[in-house]
């Protein structure tokens, strides 16, 4: 494994602060890659090369300095990675006095190598996983399916197992970081994903990863694929996740797609889950679960061509003219199935205020949503159109 100069130099600087001895770290070619004497970095170290060839420690004493040009007394010992010599540690001083220090430096360097190798393996696996997930969502030929199945098996995933897509949005990522000064977004993200992976209902065949800064995708395995059992299994899985967090209060919005048996079903399930996240945000849902099967109307709306939306709904939206009060009233009425009392409670206003606003909506759109089903649907469409196409940051997945 090739040594990283930046990490090696950081190690040298930290150890020298505590031990006080000059330290050199040489790579497997005998070239100095880190040193207390920066001028020596990049130069060849003859003794180090000899140590590498012999795989033995070489001590230089004061009376040996004349034998080797530019070499001071000290200890030069090999360090290993995977039972192979990876380089040489050189520490200046009387060998008997620096014995323990040299051993500390060697152990620290080998530990650094192990940690770096682990990071690289994790990064490689995550990179492969990211590309793999992207392939799952974009493949559209039999050949792509075959290669993706093979790729999945290398990563440890059996694509013959039925799965449904679940999207999870961390709704309070910024506020968590503000409340916990020792945390940053990356640490919170890592905590949330690791916590999900550690729950009882999450298994090794569940494919999970971040798709944006605050959204996680999970291809959740299923035992049964009928809609009733899919919802039951996902509900148990999500409840398990929600109850697993400790001191950190994490608000999660879940969007769950439906199961599709074809090899291209992942993308369909993903689009449904994404639509549910968007709809949840639109309706100001917090810490809730949105199942696509429960929101067919919203799914159908999301699939309608925008040009048609503009043509048929645009004139209505112009009448609202970004009136927040009317939009909030529309939302409350839709959310509460046109129940005036519940809508007024949601908005903390008197029932008569809701009646007044409803009358304004009836006059504005020439509809009667309280008594006409078609008009109720039209009001819902107008509201969805306004929020989907005029509210920013709705489709960040």
UniProtKB/TrEMBL annotation:
Boundaries of every CdaR GGDEF-like domain copy: 147-278
Family annotation (Gene3D superfamilies): PucR C-terminal helix-turn-helix domain
Pfam families per record: Diacid_rec, GGDEF_2, HTH_30
Annotated InterPro entries: CdaR-like_regulators (IPR051448), CdaR_GGDEF (IPR041522), Diacid_rec (IPR008599), PucR_C-HTH_dom (IPR025736), PucR_C-HTH_sf (IPR042070)
Domain Putative sugar diacid recognition: 3-135
Top-level taxon of the source organism: Bacteria
Domain PucR C-terminal helix-turn-helix: 327-381
Family of the protein in this entry: Belongs to the CdaR family.
Protein name: Helix-turn-helix domain-containing protein
